[in-house]
Amino acid sequence: MDKMPKWADVVLIPLISLLLATILSALVILGIGEDPIAAVKIMFDGALGSTYGWGYTLYYATNFMFTGLAVAVAFHARLFNIGGEGQAMLGGLGVAMACLYVPWPHWSIALLAAGVAAMLFGAAWAAIPAYLQARRGSHIVITTIMFNFIAAALLNYMLVNVMRPEGSMDPATERFPAAVHLPTLHELLAPLGIGFSKSAPANVSLLVAIAACVLVWALIWRTRLGYEIRAYGHSETGARYAGISPFRITMIAMLISGALAGLMAINNVMGEAERLVLNSTEGAGFIGIAVALMGRSHPFGVFLAALLFGFLFQGGAELALWSNIPRELIVVIQALVILFTGALDNMVRMPLERLFLALGNRRRDMGEGAPLPERKPTQPTE
Amino acid sequence: MNASATTPPAIELKGISKAFGPVQANRDISLSVAPGTIHGIIGENGAGKSTLMSILYGFYRADAGEIWINGQRTEIHDSQDAIAAGIGMVFQHFKLVENFTVLENIILGAEGGGLLRPSLARARRTLEELSREYGLDVDPDALIEEIGVGMQQRVEILKSLYRHADILILDEPTGVLTPAEADQLFRILRRLREEGKTIILITHKLREIMDVTDTVSVMRRGQMTATVRTAETNPEQLAELMVGRKVLLRVDKAPARPGRPVLEIEGLRVRDDKGVERVKGIDLTVRAGEILGIAGVAGNGQSELLEVLGGMRPGAGTIRLNGAALPLHGRGADGQARRAAGIAHVPEDRQREGLIMEFHAWENVAFGYHHDPAYQRNALLMDNAAIRADTERKIEKFDIRPADPWLSARNFSGGNQQKIVVAREIERNPDLLLVGQPTRGVDIGAIEFIHKQIVALRDAGRAVLLVSVELEEILSLADRIAVMFDGRIMGERLPQETDEKELGLLMAGMSGEAA
Ligand SMILES: Nc1ncnc2c1ncn2[C@@H]1O[C@H](COP(=O)(O)OP(=O)(O)O)[C@@H](O)[C@H]1O
Ligand SMILES: [Mg+2]
C-alpha cells in the first residue's frame, strides 16, 4: 500500500520544505540584524513587481526548465546526470558555432539550427559518460562531474585560443550577427498590445522551454520509449525480463538528457548574451538537479520549480542590490531552499508518511508516479 | 507450588492485538500452549503469524493483550526479555555470521566474560552435551558459509538451546530444506519434545502440520479462527479454516496427451553472473500438451535454466522451439525475441522480474508486450486506453482483486500480483509457457486458480515447463518430472510412479540407481 496520497507527495512535501527553508532563512537574516519581512518584500518587488523583474525571473526560469528536464529524464532511468553544467557549456559552443560561422537569413531558421547544434553538442558530451556507465560500469555521477571540469577547460581553450576575435583581451567570441537576434518578450508581446520591459532578457526561448516540458511529458508517459525508460529506472532485473536493453536505455536517456541541457544555450548564449562568454551557464546545470528533485521529475513540477528558482535568483540579486544583506548570504538562502527541497526531502517525508499511516489514509493512488531519487529495496515475499 | 493444580500452559497469550497503520495484523488473539507439546500455527501469507511470534519474542510491542509464560504474567520488551523468559526463536532468514565458525556463532552475544578463549572452551563442552542430548549433529569448527542450510538451521536451534530456551519458535523452517532435511528437522523437534521443550511451529504447509504437531491453531486475516487437536482434524478441514471456503487440494486434471516436441534442449550450459557454471550440460524435451516439472532444491541451476529460455541470460548449447534453433546470446536472444518466437514466461520472482511494482496494474499488463501493435496508437504513441481495456478484461477473467487497473502492483496481495503475471502470459496463448515458482507466497485460493489455468493451457495443446521447489506442487501438477541437482538432470520420473521420498533422494544428488 502507498504510504501517503499522491497529492501529499507532490504538493504538500515541497510546500512544507519551502516553508522550512523560508523560516530558517528569516532566522539567518534576523541573526545578522536585518528585517526578514523587508527582505521578502524586496525580493517580491524585485522579481515579480515589474515586467522588468518578471523578465529576469522568466529568463532564469527558462534556463532551469531545460536543465531541470535534463536531470528529470535521466532520473526516470535512475541515472543521476550531474553533468548538466558541462553539457550546457558545450551546448553554448554549438550555438556559437552555428550563429557565427553560418550567415542565417532569419532568426527563426537560426534558432532551429542553433537549437539542433546545441542539442547535438550537449548530447555528445553526455554520450561518453553514458557509454562508460553502460559498458564499463563507471559510475555516471563521477564521470559526469569530471566532464563538467573538462567542459570548462575545453571552453576556456576554445575562447582563449580559437574563437576570440583578433586583438580582443576578452575570452569571449565576437557578437553574433544581428540577423540571429532572438525576439525578447518585449518584442513578442508588443504586437498584442501588451507592454513589457525592453531591457529584460526573457526571450522566445521561454516558449521553447515550455514546449520542451510538454514534449518530455509525452515522451515519458505516452511513448513506448518512455515506458521502457521508466521500467528500466524502476527495476533493472525487470527490464532484463521484458527484453528491454539496459545499454540502449542508458544511452538514449542520457543522450536526451544531454540534449536538453545543451538546449539551454539558446536562452543564455543566443537569447541573452548574444555571444559566448566564459562561465555563461552560471551554475544553472546544478540548479537543474534541485529543480528536478523538487519537481519530482515530473515536467509540470519542473516547470513550477524552475519558476521558483527563477524568482529566487532574481529576487536574490535585487536583495543584494537594495539591502545590506551581503551577496554571500543570498547564496546561503538559495542553498537552504535547495537543501530543504532536495537533499533533506526525507526529513519532511518520513514524519509525513508516518502521519498519513497513522491517519489510516487509504487512498487510491492516481496520476503518474515519478521515481524517487533512491532505489528502495523491494521486500521479497516469503 | 500447589500439588493439586495442573501445570500452567507454557505460553498463554490473552487478547493480543497489533496494527501496522491501517493493517490489523493481529486482532484479539488468545492462545494457550501446553508444555512439552508441539503446537502448529498455520495460515496463509499475511495472516499475521510472524507478527504474533515477533510480539512474543519482543520484536514488536502489542497494542493490547497480555503474555503469560509458565503461569506468570511476563512483559517482553525486547529479545533479551524473551531469552530471559526462556524463549528462543529460529527466524525464516537465519541470523548467522557467514565467516564465523559454528561455535563462534553460537556464543555470539552470550560470551559470558571478557575473555574469549576460556568461554570458547566452556561453550565447546556445553555444545557437545547439547548435541548429544538432542541428536543435533554439528561440527563446531566448521565455517557457516561452508555448511548447508539444514546444518545452519541446527546451529540456530543450538543457539537457542545454549541460551537455555525451554520454548522454541520456528517460523517457516522448512522453506529452504529438502524433504529429507525437513524430515530430519522434524525428528529433532520430536526429540526436543521428549526432553520437555515446548515448540511452536509456524508454516503454511498442511502436510508438516499433520506430521509433527500435537495441536494446531489456524490464523486467517489477523484472527485465530480455530485451535484443534491434530489427531482430530484433516488437511481439507484445515485448508477450509485457512481460506474460509472449501478448496480443492489436489489438482483435477485428465491424463496428458503429449504430442510433438515443442522445446528441445541439448547440451545446455549456463553460467551465473559470477561466471560459475550453474547448468552443466542438460538435455530435455517438452512436448505439446504436457507439463514437464523440474524438481530440485533452490539453487541447483533451475533459475538459470528458466532465465536462458526466457532470454534473460546467455548460454551455450542448443535450444530448439518447434524445430527451429533459438539463438542463445547476442541480439535475438533477449526477452523480446523469445516472446516473438512464442515463449511466455512467468518468472520466479514476480516482484523483481515479472512486475514493475511502482507501475499501475494496466502498465504491468503491457510489460514485456509493450511492442504489441494492439497497444500502439500510432508510430509514436502507445494506446494506453487499449491497454486499460485489455486490463479490465483480464481482471474480470482472472478475478483479480481489487478490480482496479489504476492500482500500483505493490498494492495487490501476492496472489493477485501473481494473477496479473499469469493472466498476461497465459492470455498470449504461447506455444511454450515457462513457469517458475508459480505459487510462491500465493494464498491457497489463488494457488488453486493458477494451477487450473496452467492445466487449461496444457489441455489446449501447449507445452509447459514448470520449475518449483514445492515437491507437492510438482507431484500434483506435472505430467513428467525431471529432478535437477548441481546443474544436471538426475533422472526423470512419472508422478504416478514415484513419491516424495524417491524424488527427495534425487534432489539430494543420489543417483537413480542408488535410490
Ligand atoms: N513491519 C510491518 N509494517 C507494516 N505492515 C506489516 C509489518 N509486518 C507485517 N505487516 C503486515 O501485517 C500483516 C501480517 O503479516 P505477517 O505477520 O508477516 O504474516 P504471515 O507471517 O502470517 O505471513 C500483513 O498484511 C503484513 O503486510
Ligand atoms: Mg511470516
Core attributes:
heterodimer, A: 382 residues, mainly alpha, ABC transporter involved in vitamin B12 uptake, BtuC, 0% strand, disordered C terminus, B: 515 residues, alpha/beta, Rossmann fold, 2 domains, six-stranded mixed β-sheet, 20 strands, globular, binds adenosine-5'-diphosphate, binds magnesium ion
What would you say this structure looks like, in words?
The complex is a heterodimer of chains A (382) and B (515). With 382 residues, chain A is mainly alpha-helical. Chain A has a single domain, classed as ABC transporter involved in vitamin B12 uptake, BtuC (Orthogonal Bundle). Chain B is an alpha/beta fold and 515 residues long. Chain B starts with 10 loop residues before the first strand and ends in an 8-residue tail after the last helix. At the A-B interface, α9 and α10 of A face α10 and α11 of B. Bound molecules: adenosine-5'-diphosphate and magnesium ion. Adenosine-5'-diphosphate (ADP) binds next to β2 and α1 of chain B.
Topology at a glance:
The complex is a heterodimer of chains A (382) and B (515).
Chain A: H1 6-31, H2 36-48, H3 51-76, H4 84-101, H5 107-136, H6 140-162, H7 185-189, H8 205-222, H9 224-234, H10 236-242, H11 246-263, H12 265-273, H13 284-294, H14 299-322, H15 327-343, H16 345-359
Chain B: E1 11-20, E2 23-33, E3 38-43, H1 49-56, E4 64-69, E5 72-73, H2 79-84, E6 87-90, H3 102-107, H4 116-134, H5 149-162, E7 167-171, H6 179-194, E8 198-203, H7 206-212, E9 215-220, E10 223-229, H8 235-243, E11 261-271, E12 277-287, E13 291-295, H9 302-309, E14 316-321, E15 324-325, H10 335-341, E16 343-346, H11 350-354, H12 361-365, H13 384-397, H14 414-426, E17 432-436, H15 444-459, E18 463-467, H16 471-477, E19 480-485, E20 488-493, H17 500-507
The complex binds adenosine-5'-diphosphate and magnesium ion (MG).
